[in-house]
Amino acid sequence: MNQTECTHETPENAATDFAGYVPHEQLLACIHCGLCTSSCPTYLETKNENDSPRGRIHLMRAIEERRIEPTETAERHLELCLDCRSCETACPSGVKYGQLIETYRNSRAQEQKQAGTKKVGV
């Protein structure tokens, strides 16, 4: 079964489109195999799962499903991505990670702008 066709249930309280971020189905495309980790420069440097594409997708999904808040710690892990997209060539599921992280970042920046806040370094 193609992961993008998977019919996982979204929790009732979930923001079905990341409150304007990323469609839930795109986050489900990641099968969490970890093949991307060996191609990720930030993961290779930090050895922290949250600094890998797989970990960042997990964080974005948890935020989207409202299981966690977009805390400074979570945001830090998401911001460490270098946008090199080398993980995309390693991914057997064809996850468009660059599109996911870019959409997430743009939406968070817009949300912060509307709220009148600005994070240092963003």
Q: What's this model, at a glance?
A:
The chain has six helices and no strands. It has helices spanning 24-28, 41-46, 53-64, 72-79, 86-90, 97-115. The chain is globular and about 40 Å long.
Can you give a write-up of this model?
This protein is an all-alpha fold and 122 residues long. The protein has a single domain, classed as Alpha-helical ferredoxin (Fumarate Reductase Iron-sulfur Protein, Chain B, domain 2). Helices cover 45% and strands 0% of the residues. The chain has six helices and no strands. It has helices spanning 24-28, 41-46, 53-64, 72-79, 86-90, 97-115. Residues 1-17 have low confidence and may be disordered.
Rg calculated over all Cα atoms: 14 Å
| Class derived from helix and strand content | mainly alpha
Separation of the first and last Cα atoms = 38 Å
Molecular shape = globular
* Contiguous runs where pLDDT drops below 50 for at least 5 residues: 1-17
| N-to-C order of helices and strands | HHHHHH
What is the name of the CATH class? Mainly Alpha
Strand content: under 5%
Largest sheet: none
Find the CATH topology: Fumarate Reductase Iron-sulfur Protein, Chain B, domain 2
Number of domains: 1
List keywords for this structure.
Fumarate Reductase Iron-sulfur Protein, Chain B, domain 2, 45% helix, globular, 122 residues
List the helices and strands and how they pair.
Blueprint: H1 24-28, H2 41-46, H3 53-64, H4 72-79, H5 86-90, H6 97-115
Helix pairs in contact: 3-6
